[in-house]
């Protein structure tokens, strides 16, 4: 199954109601055959702009981030179910990308430029390339490239 991230913006409400909304949204994932990997409460914040949802205008929201695995065929059904919930102001599901493996080259990058392998490689390529020179005996009475 694919890993997804669900960002929920919930309307401002007491803590026990907030917990029931999060539980309800998690149970929707469980009902579709998915499972939660991580649940984060990002706190209550001002929204970047006022948002109208379910006949109310919201300027603040409680932010929650859920990381879950679920079959891809149920993602649209989850979004539809969350859009009908009056306690959810906004919802977004993103496909989580795999972290790319990389090799740390800080030690090499801290060296002065002439000692770096990448710079030495560029210098070697410049020396190997034989640049074409303009032949002044071409019969043209002018130099075609500005000097």
UniProtKB/TrEMBL annotation:
GO terms assigned for molecular function: small ribosomal subunit rRNA binding; structural constituent of ribosome
Gene Ontology cellular component list: mitochondrial small ribosomal subunit
Top-level taxon: Eukaryota
Transmembrane residue ranges: none
Any one biological process term the GO annotation gives: translation
Alphabetical list of InterPro entries matching this protein: Ribosomal_bS6 (IPR000529), Ribosomal_bS6_sf (IPR035980), Transl_elong_EF1B/ribsomal_bS6 (IPR014717)
Pfam family, one: Ribosomal_S6
Protein family (similarity comment): Belongs to the bacterial ribosomal protein bS6 family.
Protein name according to UniProt: Small ribosomal subunit protein bS6m
Native species: Zophobas morio
